Amino acid sequence: MLNLGSNKITKIENLVSLHNLNYLDLYDNQIGEIGELNKIPTLKNLILGKNLIKRIKNLDNLPNLNGLDLHTNHIS
Fold first, then answer.
1. I need a labelling partner for 4 at 20 to 30 A (CA). Which of 12, 24, 44, 61 fits?
2. Where on the phi/psi map is residue 73: left (φ > 0), alpha (ψ -120 to 50), or beta?
3. What's the rounded Cα separation, in Å, for the pair 15 and 37?
4. Do residues 26 and 4 touch, judged by C-beta distance below 8 A?
């Protein structure tokens, strides 16, 4: 479980060593693109609400993803 909410993070990166991560909370940051998540296939819950995301992509390789929060983004 990793909670990095409200940290002004702009990119999802450097997660390659988190092989057993199943909950990632990046709520209320400045992330503009969903990336680097294909390296953590164990991820079950992803919280990306209140960011700057415009497109939903790069989620294809997350077979265990059960929960996804993208509220208050700029998705068209």
1. 61
2. beta
3. 8
4. yes
Structural domain boundaries, residue 6: 1-76
* pLDDT at residue 64 in the model: 97
CA contacts within 13 A on the Cβ side of 60: 2
Residue 36 sits in a domain whose CATH number is 3.80.10.10
Query: In total, how many domains does the chain have?
Result: 1
For 24-62, the pLDDT digits (tens) are: 999 999 999 998 898 899 999 999 999 999 999 989 989
- The tokens describing 59, both together, are 């989620």
If one counts every other C-beta atom within 10 angstroms of the C-beta of residue 73, the result is 19
- The residue that leads in pLDDT, 76 or 43, is 43
Contact between residue 15 and residue 21 where contact means Cβ atoms under 8 Å apart = yes
